[in-house]
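tool_call: predict_structure(chain=1)
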Amino acid sequence: MDFSFAPLWNSAVELGNGLLWDYVLIYLLLGAGLYFTLRTGGIQARYFGHMFKLLKNSRHADGGVSSFQALSTSLAARVGTGNLAGVAVAIYYGGPGAVFWMWMTAVVGMSTSFIESTLAQAYKTDHGDNTFRGGPARYIERGLGLRWMAVLFSVCLIIAFGLAFNSVQSNAIAQAMEQAFDVPTWVMGVVLVVVVSPIIFGGLKSIAKVAELVVPLMALLYLILALVVVGLNIADFPAALMTILQSAFGLNQAAGGVVGYAISQTIMNGIQRGLFSNEAGMGSAPNAAATASTRPDHPAAQGFIQMLGVFLDTLVICTATAAIIIMAGPELLAGDENKGIQLTQMALSIHVGDWGGMFVAVSILLFAFTSIIANYSYGESNIEYLAKGRATIAVFVYRIAVLSMIMIGARASLEAIWNFANLSMGTMAIINLIAILMLSPIAFALFRDYETQLKAGVEPVFRPRDFPKLAHKVDPNAWPDRD
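tool_result:
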């Protein structure tokens, strides 16, 4: 049975993607990131070490969700098919140079992630069970007073993360397991539904605990293998880097007379896959950032922690995948049979033998599995925002819909799934980027307050009374005034 989308639907999705990505989102995404970088004085570089320093004390939570658990949840969503299948898709369609543009998206995206996560913390609300809720929907309504815009964002996020992205994740798992172990895709779909069900029905704390345990382990194991591959091919590593840089600016295509088209495809695929992977500016990670009980007790603290998540996702894990694929040789990209996760599997098999493909299959199983439960949590937070008094019924219906899309995604065509994910992701990102640009003066003020206290040698503390623009907009149960 084939769940491919109808040709008319595919055409509409492709048209929407063309308008969003070619004419709006790329410029808005990079422009916002550069603006935030300049206004914060290059926060990525100046506070690079501080991110890791905060990580040391990030497990403190007083019974709620810790900063580390919030980071793990956001990394669970970030570190998934984008890091294994997405990098392969970017290289296949955009060439090795797409990796460079993934890096650039991540570098400027680190400042964007800081801004959106700091705002999510500032406008978070007490959930009544020692946890918090927040994200773009809350800071759009509370900060801008635009509930219609907040509702639109929530709807887009629920469609994107609960439906489209979870279909992408289950599709990648099913394809990888079929290639490595000959497991039918429908069987893998059933298995995923059975395993995911008790976790998502367990609620946000259950998701945070699973992410805290699984994400660091799976990322470490994958990075160790990538380092081994690089070590075994260390003589080829400089050439691989040069290939990325030359391809990024069309130098490899100069003789072909198609430089302009080649560069546009390289940039487009790099930025699309970079955004899909690290999610900076998309408005997804702030939903996890808002749940944290921060230490220091200041909204900017979680901004720094989430900024680290972008760095780890793209500049570390995605680079590892790119190195594995590019060092496998250009002939691997010549055929049409390997485009997504299969390309990563084939590349690793060339380096370490047949078990490499099996290792990727297991890795994508863990990566995408944690992405599914984290994506679900983002949607649940927004379902609760929309449903308010009827949240219990709405959340139950949402859970059933998510499980259904996991099953459908396991059998859907790769191209249709990725196109739909791009469209929903782009719509979300535009709404969120407009909102954080409008609210950026608040985020800049919070950053200056944190920086001033830090330079004075004291642990930063957030005092809402010091911010007149936040008056009556901050939940006093989430941020009580401190002496």
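agent: Residues 300 and 447 are 6 Å apart (CA to CA). Proceeding to next step.
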